[in-house]
Design brief:
The complex is a heterodimer of chains A (278) and B (91). Helix content of chain A is 35%, strand content 21%. With 278 residues, chain A is an alpha/beta fold. Chain A has a single domain, classed as Protocatechuate 4,5-dioxygenase, Chain B (3-Layer(aba) Sandwich). Chain A has an 8-stranded mixed β-sheet, sandwiched between helices. A two-stranded antiparallel ribbon of chain A has the order 4-5. In chain A, a hairpin with a 4-residue loop joins strand 9 and strand 10. The radius of gyration of chain A is 17 Å and the shape is globular. The model of chain A has no long low-confidence stretch (mean pLDDT 97). Chain B is mostly helical and 91 residues long. Chain B has a single domain, classed as Protocatechuate 4,5-dioxygenase, Chain A (Orthogonal Bundle), CATH 1.10.700. Chain B is 71% helix and 0% strand. Chain B has 7 helices and no strands. The chains are: A alpha/beta (278), B mainly alpha (91). The interface between A and B is medium-sized, with 17 and 22 residues.
Chain lengths: 278, 91
């Protein structure tokens, strides 16, 4: 059976790339150091497939039809369409249709009905962490779009449960495939709203403590009460919660956290060490 | 509630070719969208406060990047919406 070999999370603020040359040397060093360690861990896991959980920032979906969860089941995915990501080295990325289809089929047995897409473009949410972390060789990518951009959003508990679905789907996938999960987004940030640029560092640090404690109900209650007030981008913490679910709330290891005002994001980087339980 | 056609305009302008056309002549592009007159006027006036309640915040931000509003100006205007809201609430 397939093996879950790693679970990771990272922020993906666009200014990390778009404003890179304007950032201070200290800021660039902080970001580089965190991403380098994340990349070292991802590459060491030697995953054949990387499931990347990210929002879609209005690239594939519009308010005509906005899925809560969409699994990319295509043989390939397009690289990022954002002009400022033109130098991203992959214009196309290889998918893993069999695992993606298996995840979808398993989900339908578990009370989830994700939508599917045979052709996704992977925006900065997917590609900034892969690029900045230096993930190489690039595994096959199974993109999972989790809507954290336009309400209504899946509940925190539902996102955790989705993570357990991913974990169990991997465990039931035939073959010797090595699979890892990367959650992209968060922590607190505010974009295009009245608090634009604000970072709620107190929220972020308490949130990280709840991930580390493994007390899932306390984490859920905290996020239910505080997440919405910490900025619209903070909704992306749901992706971390899905990763936490895949790890069954065990083994959280914070790589780095900094509230980086110049990129508007409370930047967090983490991995979970719970995957050996499978 | 979102304004569908304003959202659609901002969504479509993520396409670089559409953005280039818009920068050259916004009126011709706007003519293809059945915007309410007051919404169209707010677009042409770069009125962040008027547009903010009508669209997703990410699309709002994308639009003003396309419209070449300096980042500092956008941040100043969007933050001012909080003060305006607060003043209305406190009367």
């Amino acid at each position: 059976m397939a093996e879950l070999v790693g679970i990771y999370a990272a922020s993906h603020g666009p200014l990390i790339v778009r404003k890179w040359n304007a950032l201070s040397a200290e800021c660039r060093h902080t970001i580089d150091t965190a991403f380098n360690e994340l990349g070292r861990r991802i590459n060491a896991a030697r995953a054949d497939v990387l499931i990347v959980i990210s929002p879609d920032h209005w690239v594939n979906f519009f308010i005509d039809n906005l899925p809560a969860i969409c699994v990319g089941v295509g043989e390939t995915h397009d690289g990022p369409p954002e002009p400022w990501l033109a130098e991203f080295p992959h214009k196309q990325m290889v998918g893993h249709a069999p695992l993606a289809q298996h995840i979808v089929e398993h989900a339908f047995t578990r009370g989830f009905e994700p939508s599917i897409s045979y052709k996704l473009a992977l925006d900065h949410g997917f590609c900034v962490p892969l690029w900045k972390a230096g993930v190489a060789p690039m595994p096959a990518i199974v993109p999972v779009v989790l809507n954290t951009v336009e309400p209504p959003f899946p509940s925190v508990r539902r996102c955790f449960e989705w993570g357990t679905v991913l974990r169990d789907a991997i465990a039931g996938f035939a073959g010797n495939t090595r699979v890892a999960i990367l959650a992209s987004g968060g922590l607190s940030h505010s974009i295009g709203e009245a608090t634009m640029g604000a970072i709620d560092e107190a929220f972020d640090r308490e949130c990280l403590q709840h991930f580390a404690s493994g007390d899932r109900d306390t984490l859920f209650d905290f996020l239910d009460q505080r997440m919405a007030a910490a900025g619209n981008g903070t909704a992306e913490v749901r992706n971390w919660v899905a990763a936490h679910g895949a790890a069954t709330a065990c083994g959280f290891d914070l790589i780095h956290y900094s509230a980086i005002a110049d990129v508007y994001v409370g930047c967090g980087f983490a991995s979970w060490n719970a995957f050996k339980k499978i | 509630m979102r304004d569908y056609w304003l959202s659609k305009l901002f969504f479509d302008l993520q396409n670089p070719a559409a953005a280039a056309e818009y920068r050259t002549g916004p009126e011709a592009v706007l003519a293809r969208y059945p915007l309410k007159p007051e919404v169209r006027a707010a677009v042409l006036a770069n009125d962040v406060a008027a547009l903010a309640p009508l669209v997703n915040p990410y699309l709002l931000r994308f639009y003003f990047l396309v419209a070449n509003m300096p980042e500092e100006e956008f941040v100043r205007q969007i933050r001012a919406t909080a003060r305006a809201t607060g003043e209305r609430q406190h009367g």
